Amino acid sequence: MSEQGAFFRSDQVDQQPMRHALLWRLAGYLRPQWASLLALLVLMALGAFLEVLPSELTLRLINRFMGQGSLRGAAPLIAGFFGILVAGFLVSFARYFLLARVGQRAMLDLRVQLFAHLMGRSTDFFHRNPVGRLMTRVTSDVQNLNEMFASGFVAIVGDALSLLAIVGWMFWTHAGMALVALGILPFLLVATEVFRRRAGDAFRETQRRYAAINAFLQEQISGMGLVQVNAQEARSAAQFQTINEDYFQAFLRTIFAYAVFFPVVEFITSGTLAALIFYAGFKLQAGAITWGLLLAFIQQSGRFFRPIRELAERYNVMQTALASSERIFRLLDNQEAIPEDPAAESAAFTREIRFEDVTFAYEEGGRKVVRGLSGVIPRGRRVAVVGHTGAGKSTLINLLMRFYDVHAGRITVDGTDLRRLKVPELRALFGLVLQDVFVFSGTLRDNIVLGRPLDLARLDSVLEQSQLKDLVDRLPLGLDTQVGERGQKLSAGERQLLAFARMLYLEPAVLLLDEATANIDSETEAKIQKVIERVSHRLTTFTIAHRLSTIRDADEIWVLDQGALVERGTHDSLIAQDGVYAKLVRLQFAEGEAA
Ligand SMILES: Nc1ncnc2c1ncn2[C@@H]1O[C@H](COP(=O)(O)OP(=O)(O)O)[C@@H](O)[C@H]1O
Ligand SMILES: [Mg+2]
User: Fold this and answer.
1) Alpha-carbon distance values, 315 to 208, 217, 336, 558 (Å)
2) How far is the CA of 436 from the centre of ligand 2 (A)?
3) Which ligand 1 atom is at minimum distance from the Cα of 387?
4) pLDDT band at 248 (very low <50, low <70, confident <90, very high)
5) Predicted TM-score of the model (pTM)
6) What confidence tens digit (pLDDT) does each residue in 495-526 have?
């Protein structure tokens, strides 16, 4: 649970985002679209202007024609009214469309940037960050930002322009009435500020709990098989119920703030209307203002409250978005990557790979997983590694592939330190086959070729070598068969053969096998054994073996114990030595007999 706890914590919404810095950085994503933004600004100014025009027309219509008792001669004014409506429609359409486009384009850029950034992270980074959390960064956090672009940033400018237009019109028309209408402002500001604080806290709490729901679901759905096998459904359901109740409670608190705020605003608004009418009553009696002016003012003051009320809502959108942006930027600022020497050299392997007194721990100052290990993998030879679970065997592969860097000593290829080689070239030397094979959804062919140039002759020879031809011939669609998400439609053995085909297609110099035959049936294992035998005449192999029978004729066997190389030699010499290896062999033999 503690790990899950840490996961929830790190997904929390921070209380005090550094707003200005964040906003400034966010604005950076809008900068390339300055032309659209400029157009938006013009459209919004136009929209604000079009909002006050009807009141001006109302005023004239009423003053001129109500007294007259007929609408004769009013046609131009009515046509003007209609024209304004149509223009308002067009402006609002263009504004809406442009706004959405600007927002979506910025999101697109951000998502692409995030994914590219993710691809540059180190193995360690992915060990420590659950998939669900990284998914959230690229999907819903980015979505939150879009809301902000759409109804935050730009819309606030629009609202401000509307307010400006309305206030301007009011003062231009009648300063006294304008002052009465604006008398509401302090009350509204106080109410909004109180609401903002209350709702802000409740809202952040809601967010936090929502993140907990997501994290829980992500974990449970991916582990559903385990839940069902262990009959833990009731317990999981109860946990989910609790998390949801928490969310529900927090949500109610948010809603409470809203439910109080809106009636209060309504109340203040009505009060202002009353004040306007009261004030206007005296002025009307004195003949200082007209009926038309009063009606136009009432119309405008209704409009006046809307942007103010929306500002409060936009505040929440901004809050969410700022929290999201903070998390996104934290991810973008993460620089955990395997460093590449700017003067890195091309990787070539003609002689040998050498471990020289290598020491490594996964955590700084943590337990040493590899201790002072030295050994040579000559080109064209077969080296095998054996040892108990946790001895550090897979770690050697992690170091060879530079998923991690050694802490002391060095690993060299033809005498050059790995750290001085170009990472992609170094990795291309190795063909890695693991116990768990990752299969992408798509066809069998896609999964073998993996986006590399398609070479039909090579593909054919690879199928032959990896014993996959039988399977392909049996399938009605052959290589075009969809393997299903994560290769569900393939058996474990078939997935393993696929991994071999994929690796052979790469034409690597060195074959790295990590317990590649550990969880498959003996028939497939025999097949794979044949594959390995055949290709190992051409390639160098570095095999981590679970079943010792598979490495009997390796040129050299390394016996690892707690990260240290304790024995090395051929099978026969090690048996003669009667040490750790001989014991391991006897143990497996006994197991085999028992089975
Ligand atoms: N990503 C990791 N972070 C921290 N510790 C790890 C990591 N991977 C492996 N270890 C630890 O390092 C030790 C050696 O692991 P590994 O090389 O996978 O062993 P083997 O392959 O021999 O079974 C184990 O104790 C394991 O718990
Ligand atoms: Mg291992």
Assistant:
1) 17, 29, 34, 64
2) 11
3) 22
4) very high
5) 0.72
6) 888 888 998 898 899 999 998 777 677 787 88
